[in-house]
Amino acid sequence: MKASSVAGTIEKQTGIHPKHRGISNLLAFALLPLSGFATDVYLPSLPGMATDLQVSGIQVQFTITVFLVSYGVSQLFIGSILDSYGRYRTGLISLFVFALASLVAATTHSLYMIYFMRVVQGITVGAVVAGKRAFFVDLYTGDQLKSYLGLFSIIWSTGPIIAPFVGGYLQTLFGWRANFYFLAGLGAGLGILEWLFSGETLPQRTPFHIKRVVNIYKDMLTTLPFVLGITMLGLSYAMVMVCNMTAPFIIEHHLQFDAVTTGYCSLILGFAWMVGGFISKGTIRHPFFRKLTINTGLQLFFILAMLLCMQFADNLYALVGFAFMVHVGAGYTFNNYMTFSMTRFPQNAGIASGLTGGLTFLMVSGLSYSIANLFPAQDGRNLGLSYLVLVVLVIVVLFLAKRSSEEVRNPAMA
């Protein structure tokens, strides 16, 4: 699509002023990492929160789980609202409610109030991120759309890269509450910029009819390649989330480092996810299943090497080094399947975006919390076992996806 035609589309079919087009694109990308910030900024503070609130580590880890569940559930339903009532106003209100919820979480002394505010944060971030994923489907098509979608996991990964790094210093200088004050300021600031420079992108509102919406959901959920693609997204990101939930305790309790060190380690592992996204973008024209099979085989190799190494060298360098390679592979798989899932149903981009994000993060929340309980945050060996469970599931799903692709002869997956 030529630049002039894109500009015309925005001017005629959206509420974005033509001179704000570039800023609105940047804002859309800036809002994609919001979920990563909301999840990861206080990771170095998890041990400190447990001590200050006089609760167990698993109770504090549950603040991540309730966010992921609400984030996932909200996206299951928000897509139809975005397609019927628009992206802009829904997202704008959500940003300011997110900021308020963050402020309450920063000032309360009740763990249960923090749980509730995390639910509110999850719902509002779900609305914002689903709307911004649909933003690009609204405005672009063809190779230009694929190029933007290929940047999603790369841009999104800036949250997991930057957030724990910032959070480590906030924890050391001001304590865990500073992380939630930071989120409040971030949400309010982005909300103001969105109000000033963005606008509605939905080309045509679709009347909200329950029967029609249910049929769309049914069509998507009975499309096996789409469902298996979402499953791959969930398994890939669960590898990262299991590490996020357990690594702070391994680093700060087992290996006896401080919160700043946790932040630096999270920065490195977040960068690994970005590297995987860049490699994925660079191999976009390579055969789909061949490159994913090679990637998964490399992940399995590094996980087995990690388990062997941890018997003799259970230290920070080995932990972060092997986790880095596993996360590169996870980012690679995630980026490939995100592009596929988001381009599957362009006529219902809001619902597809919401369903993709919702089911992915519901899966991530269930898998990460269950595996964190099955293999507690004790040492690097347990983290390696967590990775092993997930990569075995990836191998099974990848096999099923390949068989499904061969049966339906889908050219997009060839």
Essential attributes:
18 helices, globular, Growth Hormone, Chain: A, 82% helix, 414 residues, MFS, mainly alpha, transmembrane, single chain, disordered C terminus, membrane
CATH uppermost class: Mainly Alpha
SS-derived structural category: mainly alpha
- What pattern of helices and strands is seen along the backbone? HHHHHHHHHHHHHHHHHH
Give the % helix. over 70%
- Report the end-to-end length measured between terminal Cα atoms: 25 Å
Task: Describe the largest sheet.
Answer: none
Q: Any idea what the radius of gyration is?
A: 21 Å
CATH topology: Growth Hormone, Chain: A
Beta-strand content: under 5%
Total strand segments: 0
Task: Quickly give the CATH architecture.
Answer: Up-down Bundle
Account of the protein in words:
Its main location: membrane. Pfam families: MFS_1. Residues 24-409 form the Major facilitator superfamily (MFS) profile domain. GO terms for molecular function: sodium:proton antiporter activity. The longest helix is centred in the middle third of the chain and has 31 residues, at 224-254. α2 runs antiparallel to α7 and α4 crosses α5 (57-85). The protein starts with a helix and ends in a 6-residue tail after the last helix. Mean pLDDT is 83; it is low at 1-13 and 410-414. Helix content is 82%, strand content 0%. The chain has helices at residues 3-13, 21-31, 34-40, 46-53, 57-85, 88-107, 111-139, 142-150, 152-156, 158-174, 177-197, 210-221, 224-254, 259-282, 288-309, 316-342, 349-374, 380-408. The protein has one domain (15-413): Growth Hormone, Chain: A (Up-down Bundle), CATH 1.20.1250. It is mainly α.
